[in-house]
Amino acid sequence: MPQPRISAYLLGPLALALGACAAPAPVPEGCGSDKDCKLDRVCEANRCVWPQPPAQDAAAPSPRAVPHEKTPAGPPAQGMFRFDPHHRGRSPFPLPKQKPDILWTVETSAPITSSPTVSAEGLVVVGGHSRKVIAVSRDGKPRWGFVTSDLVWSTPAIAANGTVYVGSDDDNLYALDGKSGKLLWKLRVGACAQTVGIGPEATRCDVDAGPTIGPDGTIYTGGDAVHAITPDGKLRWRFATGGHVASAPALSADGTVYAGSRDNSIYAIAPDGRRQWEFRARDDVESSPAVEEDGTVYVGSDDNRLYALSPQGQLQWAFTTGDDVRASAAIGRDGTVYIGSFDGLLYAIRRDGTLLWAFRAGDRILSSALVDAGGAILVGSQDDRLWAIEPDGKPRWSVELGGDVDSSPVIGPDGTIYVGSDDGRLYALRAP
Ligand SMILES: [Ca+2]
Ligand SMILES: [Ca+2]
Ligand SMILES: [Ca+2]
Q1: Domains identified in the chain, total number
Q2: d(Cα 221, Cα 296) in Å, to the nearest integer?
């Protein structure tokens, strides 16, 4: 059941106040009953206090009050699609001022739509339509390859301990040893009668969403539903959707899981797998959500819109572009949202939903942009170029690659840019 929307505007500030209440506001002493307490506080031992959500009951009245996962947070993951579980697309490393040269390429036999993930020690891991996952050292030397039984659209995620998680259209989520590429475990997602090839049944259970690693190591991915999986490969929960989930789930700070589906909906799911709310767009949602610090969820849809949703699932605004929005938003440090559309434009949208600027590439944009600390943008386009754009929307430089750039670029610790292309190559670019 959706949460009652009428209360959302009230619950929002209240929940925020609740969350921020480390130093409690002055509490009136001497209450006799809950009626003596302001707002939603309750009277306990003659003191007005904020109610504690019951430990076992996740169906608490406020979506914000759902208890968090009890598993403690570990060291952060080394990398994943959109860099961290919030999917803000913020690169900690600066975009080069100068146009970079192609440092090296690794050739595979089929397009690379997957986005490279760089480990802490510089290992670059990417999937491909060659059905393989490859790992390359920072100097371009192949380190290992792992063959699956179908295309790999999924962007690999690298856990704190170096384990690589990646999905395949063969319906499996794989865990690979980061050093050797050897299989640690695999988990089949869903129960599709046909796992590989083309057609609705063969694609319904594809694990094409890049896995998202939560702070406690839980792995979230899509398929025929949204799945939460333990670090050792056991299904924690499965959240049923009405359509395929190609969108990598994103997490908010309180552990809420957001994912889009081809059933046109964006779902908010509590850390224990219970439904919090559902927001219906007007077409498929393949864009992966991005969650801002204040909890706002940005997600695109094939209905041509970028949606801004409150943590309670209320529509804040929708920004209409000229075609499908399948890319994922990057969120700048100042709250500006950057997203490309199949109309060929990269939009910079203020947090109030108004247009700051738009940059026109030569063809559709499926690639998700990254934003650096200075507000510069890097994004690929089907015009075969990788575009660097200044914070004011003017182009900084572009590099022509050998095919569509649908892969989302990343910047490594030494400033090298990595991206895949439809020409089958993984590219490393570095400024002189
Ligand atoms: Ca499949
Ligand atoms: Ca459309
Ligand atoms: Ca092209």
Answers
A1: 1
A2: 21
